[in-house]
Amino acid sequence: MRNRANAGSTLIVALASTMLAAGIACAGLSIATTGQADTAREELKLRAKAVADAGVHRAIAFLDQTARLSPFEPFATLDDLLFDGGGAAIDYLLAEDEPLVMGGTTYGTCSVLLTASASGLVRDVTVTATGYVPNRASAKFRRTMQAVVRVEQRPAEVFDYSYFINNWGWFYGNTINGYGNVRSNGQFDAANYAPGAFGTPRYERIDLANPAAPDLVGYQDDNGDGVLDGSDGGIFAGWDIKDAGNVRGLGGEAQNQHDFVAQTAMPNLNDLSVYEARALAAGASLAIGGAGGLPATPVADAVLGDGVGEKQNLVLIGTVDQPILLDGPVVVRGDVIIAGVVSGQGAIYAGGNVYIANDLTYLDPPATSLPATNSEADTEAWIAANRSKDFLGLFAREHVVFGDYTHWIWRYYVDWWTNDAMNASAEDAGEDQIPGTRAGRDGIMDTADDDVLEGDGCFTVSHYTEAHAALGQIPAGKSVGDVIPGSGEDIDGDGAYDGTTTLAEFDLAAALDSGEWAGNLPAGTLHYSEIATLELTDVQAAVYTNHAAAMVTLAWGEDFDLLGALVSRNESMIYGTNHLNLTHDRRLTAGGAYGTLLPSEIVPARILAWRSLEQDLHYLGAAP
Fold first, then answer.
1. What's the pLDDT tens digit per position in 595-621?
2. Which contiguous run of DSSP H or E holds residue 423?
3. The domain containing residue 252 runs over which residues?
4. Rounded Cα–Cα distance for residues 331 and 8 (Å)
């Protein structure tokens, strides 16, 4: 009899684990009865535990979904539910004696209570779930489980790469070099060229508690060799990696080519109000000058364009003697044109396009562009030595434009590649938001893995529902029926359909002679070409756009070097230089030494602790 009871218990636990892993918020169990009271009691005890476990998992799914339903400010809706107006935690009853039903059969009821604590960009939620069998009023058995679940915002993972594209990745050239990891959410294609993908280990996070000794935590053994020796990293792709046999560097080794990995989310910059709040809280600003002890000339406070009659657009041109002075994260509600020399540490968020008109360099750059080796110790030492050096983030709500977009050569090549079928950008890319995947991983149409939404001529998205409203999950400013930003085929998260990128989208929002530009535009400048170049060679910044990064540079005989990161939805980066070198600024590793400046993302809810509040299951009623 003992063997039969053990077999029955094993079956019950296995079924419960399978259902919970699949996200089913109920605990339907097959009960193996032997006719003996002790066996029946054990089985019902296990059912009560499974019901309580299901309640915890339901709470985790609720927290995760609520944060993602408000992508611009993931904590806004959660905080409305879990805290009062003064910031004090309040208990939120997610479920009270709620039946858990599957296949028409009720297996018990569950009550779930949430209690939260807040610290910066972290919410730790204590989930207390009690399962009753058959229900609370006439319970024969109950079990209470408790978990601490963390919901967290952190600097977006996309900045861990020298090149990240939320589309198909193209390294078409023997003289392209990615000094750091490269990643695409779609296919990565080297087309039998011999580009360099030199790779670097990834880490879970960086601990900056001791500013003099940054500590990289959680080395990722990507190649699975069990050795944490700096030989990890390489090429990562959400689809397959194609024709990469000639790739140079770590990324050319089979164990460092990681295909069909989970897609990495792009942060949503369509609503910059959260970044405006951060900029105001930081007292951020931009100025020009200040060299040799002379006073600097302010050009923007924390938010440019929020004042009555204030100009929306900004031109910044720095020199060694009169650099652009960065002090924290600044939001510009319109377009930004920038070139020349920058000093300090800061970021510029643009509500329109960012134009890198000419070379853009640090006055006080890192002493070397890379650590001596890829080892953890050398990387930490390099970050420590260069943490006080200049740093700039350029983050565009729309496009990032490199060089003189008005030149006919620039427009010809960018238009050609932007409209190429291989570089599709229209938001009819299907459920996975990646074009060219309609036939699924097997490459055969009319099979189970087809992405049938791709290319169907419909903009398929999800909408807020009455169910969301009943749970308090609709963020302020949104209503039942509105598009959930970033859902379905809404790749850029603005809730509206976007077709193929056009040349017109790269044009300035206002003419330079319109009087609508703040900053230090040289007197008498009428045309963008007067301050821009078609011979771009140096950009030192972390660059982000959830639309297109577009460039043509024809600096023959020279290299094009970008120190930072290039992150985009799709790209038309066309170079006529000896090399195109994308060097990952290791200060961005694992959230970055400047994490407070970077766009943030919501981290999937994760369990920090899980325990039973009752060491022994309580038998509350008469024996069955």
1. 899 999 888 889 999 988 864 434 344
2. none
3. 158-258
4. 61
**Residue 205's beta-bridge partner residues?**
217
Q: What is the C-alpha separation between 116 and 79, in angstroms, rounded?
A: 9
State the residue for tokens 């100025």: 287
Do 139 and 167 have their domain in common?
no
Same domain, 127 and 192: no
Do 122 and 147 fall within a single domain?
Answer: yes
Asked if 78 and 115 touch (Cβ cutoff 8 Å), the reply is no
Do strands 141-155 and 618-619 pair parallel, antiparallel, or not at all (unpaired)?
Answer: antiparallel
Tell me the percentage of the chain whose pLDDT exceeds 90. Answer: 74
> Dihedral sign, CA of 253, 255, 260, 264?
negative
Query: Contact at 8 Å (CB) between 186 and 217?
Result: no
| Three-class DSSP labels, 195-235 | CEECCCCCEEEEECCCCCCCEEEEECCCCCCCCCCCCCCCE
How far apart are alpha carbons 199 and 206 in whole angstroms? 18
Residue 165: inside a domain: yes
| Residues 86 and 105 grouped into a single domain | yes
Higher pLDDT, 137 or 280: 280
Q: Could you tell me if residue 431 is inside a domain?
A: no
Q: In this structure, what token pair is assigned to residue 468?
A: 């969301």
| pLDDT at residue 392 greater than cutoff 80 | yes
Residues ≥6 apart with Cβ < 8 Å to 205: 154, 216, 217, 218, 590, 591
Of 222-226, 248-252, 359-363, 468-472, the range with the lowest mean pLDDT is: 468-472
Give how far the C-alpha of residue 75 lies from the chain's centroid of Cα atoms, to the nearest Å.
Answer: 15
Q: How confident is the model at residue 391 (pLDDT cuts 50, 70, 90)?
A: very high
- How is residue 401 written in tokens? 């434009």
Question: Cα–Cα distance between 186 and 432 in angstroms, integer?
Answer: 9
Is the model's pLDDT at 574 over the cut of 50?
A: yes
Residues 94 and 130 in one domain: yes
Domain final position from 214, 232, 258: 258
219-238: per-residue pLDDT in tens?
A: 999 999 999 999 999 999 99
- pLDDT score recorded for residue 37: 62
Compute, in degrees rounded to 10, the torsion defined by CA atoms 469, 473, 479, 483.
-120
The Cα 276–Cα 280 span in angstroms is 6
pTM of this prediction?
0.88
Residues 6 or more apart whose CB falls under 8 angstroms from that of 451 comprise 430, 431, 432, 437, 438, 439, 440
Q: Is the separation of the CB atoms in 193 and 597 below 8 Å?
A: no
CA–CA dist 351, 264 (Å, integer): 23
| 143 in the same domain as 6 | yes
Specify whether 14 is located in the same domain as 150. yes
Residue 268, domain member (yes or no): no
Name the pLDDT band for 315 (thresholds 50, 70, 90). Answer: very high
Buried b (16+ CB within 10 A) or exposed e, 425-462: bebbbbebbbbbbbebeeeeeeeeebbebbeeeebbbe
Give the residue-averaged pLDDT of 367-378. Answer: 96
Look at the chain and report how many structural domains it folds into.
2
Q: What is the pLDDT of residues 485-533, one digit of tens each?
A: 999 999 998 999 999 999 999 999 999 988 899 999 999 999 999 999 9
* CA pair distance 320, 344, nearest whole angstrom: 13
**Which of these three, 258, 274, 309, is where a domain ends?**
258
